Amino acid sequence: MKKTPKEIYREYKENGCGDFAEWLGISTPSIRCTHNGYFVMYKMCRTRYSSNMIYGDPAKTKKAAKESYKKALNFHLHQTRLLMMDKNNG
C-alpha cells in the first residue's frame, strides 16, 4: 500500500533526520562563490541514460545565479524530453 504524503512527512519527523529533501533522496542544487566574488548554482542530474552537472552562469547575486540555473535546468529538461521522444519514435 502506498503511503500518503502526510504519512511520509510524519515518518520523517519521527526519525528526526536532517534535511527533508535528502531524506527523500532528492538531489538539491548547491550554490558556491567563485574566487572573483560571483555566485554559481549547480546540481548533479542523473537519468537512466546519463549523468550531467547543470550549471547556471556566474552572477553577482544569489538571486541572479538561481535564475540562471533555472534557465539551464529547463533547457536540460527540454533537451532530455526531446531525446526521449526521439528514442520512443525511432
Report the C-alpha radius of gyration, rounded.
17 Å
Element string (H = helix, E = strand): HHEEEH
Helix-residue proportion: 40-55%
Ranges with pLDDT <50 over ≥5 residues?
none
Shape: flat
Q: Give the class from helix and strand content and strand pairing.
A: alpha+beta
Question: What is the terminal-to-terminal distance?
Answer: 36 Å
Adjacency order of strands in the biggest sheet: 1-2-3
- The oligomeric status of these chains comes to single chain
Overall pLDDT score:
80
Largest sheet: 3 strands, antiparallel
Strand content: 15-25%
Q: How many strands?
A: 3
Number of continuous helical runs: 3
Concise overview:
The chain is an alpha+beta fold and 90 residues long.
Features:
flat; 49% helix; alpha+beta; 90 residues; 3-stranded antiparallel sheet
Please describe the topology of this protein.
Elements lengths: L4 H11 L4 H5 L5 E4 L5 E8 L4 E5 L6 H28 L1
Antiparallel strand pairs: 1-2, 2-3
Structural account:
By secondary structure, the protein is α+β, with helices and mostly antiparallel strands. It has a domain at 28-89. 49% of the residues lie in helices and 19% in strands. The protein is built from 3 helices and 3 strands. The protein has helices at residues 5-15, 20-24, 62-89; strands at 30-33, 39-46, 51-55. It has a 3-stranded antiparallel sheet with strand order 1-2-3. A hairpin with a 4-residue loop joins strand 2 (39-46) and strand 3. It is flat. It starts with a helix and ends with a helix. The relative contact order is 0.11. The mean pLDDT is 80.
